[in-house]
Structure formats: structure tokens, C-alpha cells
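User: Can you predict the 3D structure for this chain?
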Amino acid sequence: MRHPADHGVAAVRHDFSLLTDNDVYLFNEGTHFDLHRKLGAHQCTVDGVRGTYFAVWAPSAESVMVFGDFNQWNRSSHPLRPHASSGIWEGFVPGVGQGTIYKYLVAGRYGGRVNEKADPFAFHAETPPKTASIVWDIGYEWGDAEWMSGRKRRNALNAPISIYEVHLGSWMRVRDDHDRWMSYREIAPKLADYVADMGYTHVELLPIMEHPFYGSWGYQTTGYFAPTSRFGTPQDFMYLVDHLHQRGIGVILDWVPSHFPNDPHGLATFDGTSLYEHQDPREGFHPDWNSYIFNYGRHKVQAFLISSAMFWLETYHADGLRVDAVASMLYRDYSRKAGEWIPNQHGGRENLEAIALLRRMNEEAYRRFPDVQTTAEESTAWPMVSRPTYVGGLGFGFKWDMGWMHDTLEYMRQDPIHRSYHHHELTFRAVYAFNENFILPLSHDEVVHGKGSLLARMPGDAWRQFANLRLLFGYMFGQPGKKLLFMGGDFAQGREWYHESSLDWDLLAIPWHEGVRRLVRDLNRLYRTLPALHELDSQPAGFQWAELNDSANSVLSFVRLSSDSRREDGVLVVCNFTPVVRQGYRVGVPYPGQWREVLNTDAAVYEGSGIGNGDIVSTDRTPMHGRAQSLSLTLPPLGALFLKHEGA
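Assistant: Here is the predicted structure, written as C-alpha cells:
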């Protein structure tokens, strides 16, 4: 590629602007949600001359220069000028084009501090540890029209949604001398093949937005408009999304508006002042992550964040955003002691400005893209997270059920002999299960920081650990709520996840691990094909207890129902959380007739003991659990049964 520096670059022209008076007005009031079209670096032609228009918000700067390889990193030859009183500095540089590497030199008005800053609106960046931005066109010819036209049905509340959570840098590496990452284009067919074979409906990617520290997994974001260049160009990432869509797989992106890192090239003290963050550390610094908190009350910061969210939904065809650490945004005293936080204007602990931002972001997302879903990772009892803003909710489509995750894993780690004393940890969820539109997450957070893998957290010898893990997955897929599994868990990876190495794919040669993989594949198939298991995931009409109080035997049984009660296509789920085989165990059911055992987590095909009920079990008129008819079942040890009603 021939660089402008090879033939000289003209001085900055200041008689051209992409900004209109309306742009400035909307930016000032915080309602310009397409800022990426006006700020940043944009290639264009002015008076027949090709070049790049630069625009950056730095209202407290004394001066702003753009410099890079196009001018041999000369720090004074290409000054930008302020656009009226907008706080935006701009200029058109002839001859600068695709692939040009650049930064801004921002001289603060107060104290004279000079900072080299990456472009907050850059579409592409150098691969870390390098920190400069890159002029880049983000045009792409998409081939996913069929997916886009039908994704409303696939993302609906009554659709089966089973999410495979992935960290791209450690899902599968190329085993050569460097054990290198796969590129976006290399991973696309392999990931699509695996996800399609396993029956997942969506992939959720840990943040792919540019981040300087790989070990943050993307949660310390600096590039809110740039996919990380570790795996390729913006078009390469578009190819990955496009390829997944063409294979019928949705793509959800993690998005982090809760905090940002203090790297000197990033957003922190951008123009010499606390521009994006609060100046007072009691509001602007996050003690858990050693990072800055956005000043949500500043209109232009709101516009920056909401523009970022809209950008990923529009430009990269994302089917949803999972918003990280929402709880830390909602509460001013989150992870703080008395005296370490500032109350809101009413004296309360709620962060009113963050609440307003989240509501506006969700309103804008669903207004523009009514066929996507936004999801909150929210770990408290904040009400109506996944309810519309017009009834007082936060406006998300889904909420992670962190309570279910915590209670269930706490229960499962108990030795079965003690589980009868913890039975309430399984049944408590029924109190709140339909207060929100829930996703049941077994995410990356549960297999890091010394917690061990899911398999390692199961009690007992190897046989019992695998049986318990299969039981956990069976119980999860039977419960109302959408599903999420982090990579590696679905084939019982034995070690804790480590971002610097590939998953242990070799384990699939071991029957026990392959058995777990087969089970998850079949659970996904069952969940997708049986309406009773997904249509009413978020409605109480889709769930009935059969027996919730059998703590003595540590058995739980419930019925899932579809939206059409006339179909009588209910599914009975019975979970035996002990290693004891229970013969003649009676369960009352809503419909008389034949019930087919459609899945048994203890089946031999999954490397279980093979104990079950064969094919068909018929009811008799023995009353049980308040119902006139019941089934007499054999419950396998540490097993979950799924029985579908087949008719009278």
C-alpha cells in the first residue's frame, strides 16, 4: 500500500466540515446517536481532492494536532481547529487515506499537559500493545438478508434461545510454533460448524471491542467503535457475523458502558480534564476494576455511549447486546463503604443518570431495531429490569438470572447426602421466576478466579462428577428461561478456563466427555423442537410444579406447558439429585395417557448407567400431587428425565 508520506501531504484544510448546525445542537443536548458518522476519521473528496476529515471532541484543549505516519509523526504540522463553540476540533487532510496510522496530540488548556490520544471514534486500531488509530473504510457487502428478514421470529420471547458464550482468543487456537489465535475469517467456518451441530441458536461474544489488555477479556474497552485488530480488520469481523447468520446462528455482543480503563492513550482525562469520567473519584472511579466510571449525567457522554450501542447493531448486524455490570451502574454505593460515595439529589443510592442512560439506550435500540434483544447482567433485585420503560422498567429484553446460577451451583456442590437440607435453594426460584424475562447463565464468570470448571465443582468420584454435571444441564434445560453456556462446559472441560490457551478439544476422545457433549446437543435439539420447553419461558402459564417438597428424596418434578393448552403436549421433568435408583416413584401429571421418555441424562449414550423407563409409560388412576392420574417411574441415579405427553 502506498502511503501519503511517500509523496507528501498537504496542510490541513479548515474550510470543510461534516458537521451541521443540527449535528452540534443534537450533540449538545445528548440526543445525537449517530456520532460515528460525524466524529472520528472519514475518507471523503473535497473539491476533487481525496483525503480524510478528522473530528474529535476535546472542549478544554488549548490545541489539537493530528499526526501519524502520513507526516512522519510530526507533532506540529497538522493542527485542527475548533468548530464554532462545539468543543469539537476538526480538519480535512488531503492525501490521507485507507490504512493511515494516526493519533491526536491534545494540549490541555489547564496546566499545559500534552497527551497522545487514540481516536475515540476510530473504526480500526493498531494491534496492542501498539495504540494508534487507523483510517479505515467500513463498507461491506452483506450476504445475510434472509437471516435479517426473519430474525424477529428467532429473537422473540417465545422462541427457543440457547446461547453459546465464546471468547474468540481461546476457543480454538492454531497449533503451530506460536500457538496463535485464529483470525475472524479462520474461526468463522469452524465456529459455525460446531454451533450448528450442537444446536445452539446464538453465539455471544465476550467483548470484541478494542482493548489494550488481553487479560481483561475485552471488559476494559478503549475502542467503542472498533473490533479488536488482534483477529483481523473490521471487514473480517463482519465476515464472521455474516457467516454465522448465513448458517442460521444469531450473534450477541457484550458491551461495556459501566467503566473504562485508565490507559494514557484512551478516554481518561482526554483533554486534560475529566471529560468522559467524573472528576470526583467517589463517582468516577471503580474500586473493583481499577477503572473510570462514565459521567452519565453529561449529555455528550450519553450521546457517545448510545451512538456506540447503535453502531454495533447497525454496522455489524448484531442481533443483540448484553450489557455488562448493570448493577454497578444502578447503585452509587456499589462496592463502596459509607463515606466512599455521594448520594443522588434526593439523598438515595440510585444512580439516576445511569438509569436514564440505560432507558434511553434501550428505547433507541428497540425503536431502530425492533427485532433485536438487549440483555442486562444485573445481579440484584432491581425491579422491572426487563420491562418496558413506559411502565417504569429499564427497557431490557432479558435479564441474566444470577440468583438461579448462584443457588443452583451452591446446591450442586453439596454432597448428595446433604442435599435434602438445601432443597429450598432449588425451589426458591419459583417465587420470582416470572418477574423478569430471564436467561439462565452458566457463564465465563463461573469458571475463573479459582472457582474451577463446572465439572470440578461437582462432588464425588469421577462417575458422580460427570453424572452430576449431566444432571445440572438437564435441570437447566427443563427450567423456564433461555439458556446460556460458556464454551468448554458443554464437553466437561476439567480445568478452569484460561484465556491464554485453547479449549481442551482432545478431551472429546474420552467417552465421558463426549457423552456430555452429546447430551448438550440433544438437550438443545429437545429445547428447540418441543414448544412446551420454550414458548412460555417467561410466563407462569408455562410451568406447573408436580412435586416441589420431596426434600427427603432430593427429587424435584415439574411440568412445562406450551402456549396452546389444547395440544396437551406438556413435558414432565423429573430430577433425582441423589445417586440412589428409585423404583416405582409416582408423579402426578396433568394429562392421562401415554408419556414418552424423550431424554434421560443417565442414558448409556451419554456414558450413564442406562437406567430408565424405556420408551412409553402410561398413566393409571392413582391420585398423586393433587392430580387424578399419575405415572410410576424408575428414577435413574443423579439423573434427569424428560417425558412428553403423547396422547390418551
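Residues 405 and 545 are 20 Å apart (CA to CA). The first helix runs from residue 21 to 29.
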